[in-house]
Amino acid sequence: MTVQTQKAQDRPSTDRIERRIELRASRARVWRAIANATEFGAWFGIKLEGAFAAGATIRGRLTIPNYDHLTLEMQVERIEPERYFSYRWHPYAIDPKVDYSTEPTTLVEFHLEEIAGGGALPSRSWSPASTASRSRAGRRPSA
Amino acid sequence: MSPRRAAAALRVSPPEAAPVFAALGDTTRLGLLGRLSAEGPLSITRLSQGTGVTRQAITRHLDSLGRVGLVRDVRRGRERVFALDLKRLEKVRQYLDHVAAQWDAAAARLKAFVEK
């Protein structure tokens, strides 16, 4: 598996996490695994109630051992079929007694692309873009 | 022929780090941190000298840095003396490392899931 961490690259990113993985599967297959709520849940470890749709908020209970008492809420932001999927949530909302709804959310984005011939990965320039500023700054999460 | 390989890039922007980086996103404030780093603790008077920025403006910038924990101040007589405090930056780093480790595990599960 090829996982490039930003640490190994020229421009270290300290306010976000970026990973790139190469998958031996078609783009359509990977897209389904990410954008279909049931499939997403199968590998991520969450049993989601409902389907992903832009602007939709769906809940699910984690199925990861030791975390399976927790319910998380995902706010789907943008869906561009087979290319881009993003959502927001509180990834470390680990105390069921705490109301995290007023806490700032983490933006999670998936970018998909094909790899021609399975050779070298096409270079992709990340625009530091608006992700940091779009993640609402505020109090630090209590997690 | 349909492509049999795809790359998925994942980007996660935790809010934890945002206030610190917002505080850093200003040339005056970066300059102040640079001087505190090079010269050690300094008074507002010293920090204002040669900047062309008013003492009040410098104070506001130092307060912004103080709110996110990048500097701390102590009173020395009638003056406030500011010093770097990088513990906050280190905490942000640790938080990001923790979130990154969780996502590395999730990425491995995604790979196993689509390649089976």
Q: State the name of the first-level CATH class of chain A.
A: Alpha Beta
Strand order of the largest sheet of chain B: 2-4-3
User: How many individual domains of chain B?
Assistant: 1
Tally of strands of chain B: 4
Give me the CATH fold name of chain A: Alpha-D-Glucose-1,6-Bisphosphate, Chain A, domain 4
- Which parts of chain A are unreliable, with pLDDT below 50 for 5 consecutive residues or more? 1-12, 118-143
Give an overview in words.
The complex is a heterodimer of chains A (143) and B (116). Chain A has a single domain (3-134), classed as 2-Layer Sandwich (Alpha-D-Glucose-1,6-Bisphosphate, Chain A, domain 4), CATH 3.30.530. Chain A contains 3 helices and 7 strands. With 143 residues, chain A is an alpha+beta fold. Chain A has helices at residues 27-35, 37-44, 131-134, and strands spanning 3-5, 17-23, 46-49, 57-62, 71-80, 84-89, 106-114. Mean pLDDT of chain A is 73; it is low at 1-12 and 118-143. Chain A starts with a strand and ends in a 9-residue tail after the last helix. In chain A, helix 1 crosses helix 2 (37-44). By secondary structure, chain B is of the alpha+beta class. Chain B has a single domain (16-115), classed as Winged helix-like DNA-binding domain superfamily/Winged helix DNA-binding domain (Arc Repressor Mutant, subunit A). Chain B has a 3-stranded antiparallel sheet with strand order 2-4-3. In chain B, a hairpin with a 2-residue loop joins strand 3 and strand 4 (79-84). The longest helix of chain B has 29 residues, at 87-115. The model of chain B has no long low-confidence stretch (mean pLDDT 85). Chains A and B meet through strand 2, helix 1, helix 2, strand 7 and helix 3 of A and strand 1, helix 1 and helix 5 of B.
